């Protein structure tokens, strides 16, 4: 991270540039900006991007003002919830209290950085704890925040990354995990990462001095899960890869405190690797919920007897991944979420028989968070769709659903006219069927339409049905068709599919995009001569890789926080992530794998990028360091291909601030206008 002295020097240099009228990147005296162009936010470094016309800003303004709501937590005793929302005129999302349907949002957190992970004090709801990082660096801190307008109190040391695991309700303690970050290490990297779990009373006079160490465990893949009702035990997951994890149980106090006991897979078993995630404990602590793909391609919900370690399968009849889950206050009903072809649906279960119950009539759309109130017969659930941002609804004990928040949608935009997301499928090079989502422009746009292929990150992730926000401008106002492919390696299609791009198979996923380009050519409404590829994180790598393999078939590429060279990425990503990424991409310490990663990296093949490139990066990104962007920009520019570069000095793995996101969106419009709409 930039040191204060260097930042001050940079600010002085920028001031000098402003006074002298010199261009910061070329040293050439700049022309006075026309009055009808938008100012560049001070936090952005802009290279080779033309001035943004104010007319574009005005035309796109409404599309940047969609503001939905996210559910964060229930008050422990009353019908009040904690909601995440970006208020009108605000730069970032903050936390609010809401106690009536469509009522006033009462601010809880404030400040220039976004707030997340909010949780009420679990006995009386007298305060909340929440998480916050700085400038996108993901060095997440945990704070206590009261409701009296006082300043938030930091509960964690600043040079570690923290995650709230849950509450020991009877003891009044919260439990959190910490991993060190590389800036505190000798030489800026760590050969060995440790995860430490702590317990502390958030109201302690000196929370750092009074916190109690529970355990220090080797590796960065340990994640705390649910805590038993008596506060004595916590579920632990040791994450190895997207296809393998282990489930442990750890005492939180007493003689065996801090000594994890492996539950699944059973110690000594010879079963194939599988995923195990621990869910909620039963009231009496005799069993717990588990999500696992042990018995098939998809993750099922099961119960685990904590004495016998026997598993009871509950959702084997649902051929999709199951995620989420919450049990009603009376313990009689459980709600779960099924990822059905990229759209989240809910199912209700009778906890006595584990049979499915009839699904009440819910608000239409893809369901996000589902959470029962701990004391009252209420279920909060969030819903979004192609036609609108996330909104929170409440389901009562009579099966009646009521809307509790109303998303902010500018009056000038009728989102009900937005076309539904469709699923498309095509055959790839090896005959495997690949799918994706497509959103088409209004029928008023005639002729073959240009295409923006937007590839998700992860790569263990999935393009899912939902509201596209400001990206709808490209569809509604520019007439662009957007395709979001789920190439091999995506989740949601079974545990075999997610491994099909691992290691030496990395470029097979790039070939899936080549096959998509073939499919586009066969479609009467799509223009194969006007295609741009974009993506974020791993999708940024994919965008660069497509630009090297299929440069003659695209008009340009947009790389957002993407990997440009696998070896430099693995060397420079935060140490707590490195081993987890090696499982996916390959271990660069093995000579054969290193040679392969060198060979396929976009930086190595930069001479093949012949079409314009737009690179977007956050300076404080701990996952894909900004050096990944800088080296591909420098190399492609040196080779003579046009490159635009946008760097957020106060951003990380993506842009979180509205003013920065706005400028990025405007610049993307200019880039598409110049490359495929001219």
Structure characteristics:
37 strands; disordered N terminus; alpha+beta
Low-confidence region ranges = 1-30
Rg over CA atoms: 25 Å
Major sheet? 9 strands, mixed
Portion of residues in helices? 10-25%
CATH class of one domain: Alpha Beta
Strand content: 25-35%
Topology, number of strands: 37
The side-by-side strand order for the widest beta sheet comes to 1-37-36-35-34-32-33-31-30
Oligomer: single chain
Structural class: alpha+beta
Overall geometry: globular
At the fourth level of CATH, the homologous superfamily of one domain is Alpha/Beta hydrolase fold, catalytic domain
Number of helices: 11
Distance N to C terminus: 40 Å
CATH architectural grouping of one domain = 3-Layer(aba) Sandwich
CATH topology of one domain: Rossmann fold
Average pLDDT, all residues: 92
């Amino acid at each position: 991270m930039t040191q204060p002295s260097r930042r001050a020097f940079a600010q002085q240099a920028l001031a000098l540039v402003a006074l002298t009228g010199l261009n910061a990147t070329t040293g050439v005296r700049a022309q006075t900006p026309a009055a009808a162009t938008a100012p560049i936010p001070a936090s952005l470094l802009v290279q080779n991007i033309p001035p943004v016309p104010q007319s574009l800003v005005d035309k796109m303004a409404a599309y940047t003002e969609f503001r939905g709501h996210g559910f964060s937590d229930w008050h422990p005793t009353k019908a009040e919830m904690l909601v995440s929302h970006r208020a009108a005129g605000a730069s970032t999302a903050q936390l609010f209290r809401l106690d009536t349907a469509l009522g006033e949002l009462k601010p809880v957190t404030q400040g220039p950085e976004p707030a997340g992970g909010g949780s009420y004090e679990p006995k009386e709801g007298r305060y909340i704890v929440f998480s916050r990082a700085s400038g996108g660096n993901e060095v997440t801190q945990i704070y206590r925040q009261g409701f009296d307008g006082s300043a938030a109190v930091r509960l964690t040391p600043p040079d570690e990354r923290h995650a709230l695991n849950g509450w020991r309700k009877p003891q009044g303690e919260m439990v959190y995990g910490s991993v060190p970050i590389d800036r505190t290490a000798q030489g800026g990297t760590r050969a060995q990462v440790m995860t430490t779990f702590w317990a502390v009373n958030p109201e302690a006079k000196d929370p750092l001095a009074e916190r109690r160490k529970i355990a220090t465990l080797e590796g960065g893949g340990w994640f705390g899960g649910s805590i038993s009702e008596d506060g004595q035990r916590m579920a632990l997951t040791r994450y190895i890869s997207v296809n393998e994890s282990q489930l442990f149980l750890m005492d939180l106090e007493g003689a065996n405190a801090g000594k994890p006991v492996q539950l699944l897979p059973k110690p000594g078993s010879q079963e194939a690797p599988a995923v195990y995630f621990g869910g909620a404990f039963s009231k009496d602590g005799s069993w717990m919920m588990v999500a696992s793909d042990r018995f098939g391609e998809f993750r099922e919900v099961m119960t685990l007897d904590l004495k016998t370690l026997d598993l009871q399968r509950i959702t084997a009849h649902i051929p999709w991944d199951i995620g989420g889950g919450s049990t009603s206050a009376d313990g009689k009903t459980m709600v779960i979420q099924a990822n059905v072809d990229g759209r989240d649906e809910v199912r209700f279960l009778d906890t006595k028989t584990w049979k499915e119950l009839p699904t009440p009539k819910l608000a239409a759309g893809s369901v996000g968070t589902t959470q029962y109130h701990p004391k009252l017969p209420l279920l909060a659930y969030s819903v979004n769709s192609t036609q609108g941002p996330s909104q929170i609804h409440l389901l009562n004990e009579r099966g009646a659903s009521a809307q509790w928040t109303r998303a902010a949608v500018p009056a000038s935009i009728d989102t009900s006219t937005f076309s539904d997301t469709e699923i498309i499928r095509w055959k790839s090079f090896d005959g495997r069927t690949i799918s994706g989502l497509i959103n088409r422009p209004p029928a008023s746009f005639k002729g073959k339409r240009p295409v923006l292929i937007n590839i998700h990150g992860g790569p263990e992730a999935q393009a899912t049905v939902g509201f596209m926000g400001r990206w709808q401008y490209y569809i509604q106002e520019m007439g662009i068709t957007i395709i979001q492919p789920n190439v091999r390696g995506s989740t949601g299609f079974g545990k075999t599919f997610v491994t099909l791009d691992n290691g030496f198979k990395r470029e097979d996923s790039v070939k899936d995009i080549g096959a998509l380009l073939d499919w586009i050519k066969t479609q009467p409404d799509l223009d194969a001569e006007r295609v741009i590829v974009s993506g974020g994180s791993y999708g940024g790598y994919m965008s660069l890789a497509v630009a090297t393999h299929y440069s003659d078939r695209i008009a340009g590429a947009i790389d957002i926080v993407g990997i440009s060279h696998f070896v430099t990425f693995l060397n420079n990503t935060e140490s707590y992530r490195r081993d987890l990424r090696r499982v996916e991409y390959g271990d660069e310490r093995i000579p054969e794998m290193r040679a392969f990663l060198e060979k396929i990296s976009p930086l190595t093949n930069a001479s093949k990028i012949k079409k314009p490139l737009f690179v977007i990066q956050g300076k404080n990104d701990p996952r894909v360091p900004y050096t990944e962007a800088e080296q591909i920009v420098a190399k492609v520019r040196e080779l003579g291909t046009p490159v635009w570069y946008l760097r957020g000095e106060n951003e990380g793995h993506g842009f979180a601030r509205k003013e920065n996101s706005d400028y990025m969106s405007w610049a993307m419009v200019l880039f598409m206008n110049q490359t495929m709409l001219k």
